[in-house]
């Protein structure tokens, strides 16, 4: 084998190793726990009854008659994602990390003045 072919084979082999290493790092990072602390709305929920506790916390924090704008601003500031379509009245937060991926979703309805007429919170762990 000539010197040029050996150099080319070495370069291709190094590029292949770098590509595989990069791919494996990406796959492992996707499954890694989210290091950020949980926002106040979802933090410290009791493990035994987290679904009901989250729904209660949402209704207590945003009572019927509250302005939708305030709800949306607070959810956004806590890391909840809202759909691009502003007519959709929900926002959600996903966190991965042992042992489960967890999802919290807040849904609501409003009257013509932008005041909440109904609100609910849903917590779904996926293990």
Percent of sequence in beta strands: 15-25%
Q: In order across it, which strands form the biggest sheet?
A: 1-2-3
The first-to-last residue Cα distance is 54 Å
Shape: elongated
Order of helices and strands: HHHEEE
Overall number of structural domains: 2
Can you describe this structure?
- By secondary structure, the protein is an alpha+beta fold.
- The chain folds into 2 domains: 1-32; 47-126, no CATH class.
- Helix content is 39%, strand content 21%.
- It has 3 helices and 3 strands.
- Strands 1-2-3 form a 3-stranded antiparallel β-sheet.
- β2 and β3 (116-126) form a beta hairpin.
- The relative contact order is 0.16.
- The model is unreliable at 24-29 (pLDDT under 50).
Key phrases:
127 residues, alpha+beta, three-stranded antiparallel β-sheet, 3 strands, 39% helix
Task: Report a brief summary of the structure.
The protein has helices at 3-30, 50-61, 68-77; strands at residues 90-95, 101-110, 116-126.
List the helices and strands and how they pair.
Elements: H1 3-30, H2 50-61, H3 68-77, E1 90-95, E2 101-110, E3 116-126
Antiparallel strand pairs: 1-2, 2-3
């Amino acid at each position: 084998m000539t010197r040029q072919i050996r150099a080319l084979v070495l370069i291709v082999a190094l590029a292949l190793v770098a590509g595989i290493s990069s791919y494996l790092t990406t796959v492992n990072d996707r499954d890694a726990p989210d290091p950020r602390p949980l926002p106040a709305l979802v933090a410290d929920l009791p493990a035994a009854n987290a679904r009901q506790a989250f729904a209660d916390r949402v209704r207590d924090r945003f009572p019927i008659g509250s302005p939708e704008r305030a709800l949306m601003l607070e959810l956004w500031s806590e890391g909840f994602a809202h759909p691009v379509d502003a007519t959709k009245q929900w926002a959600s937060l996903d966190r991965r990390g042992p042992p489960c991926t967890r999802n919290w979703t807040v849904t609501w309805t409003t009257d013509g003045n932008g005041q909440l007429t109904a609100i609910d919170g849903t917590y779904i762990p996926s293990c």
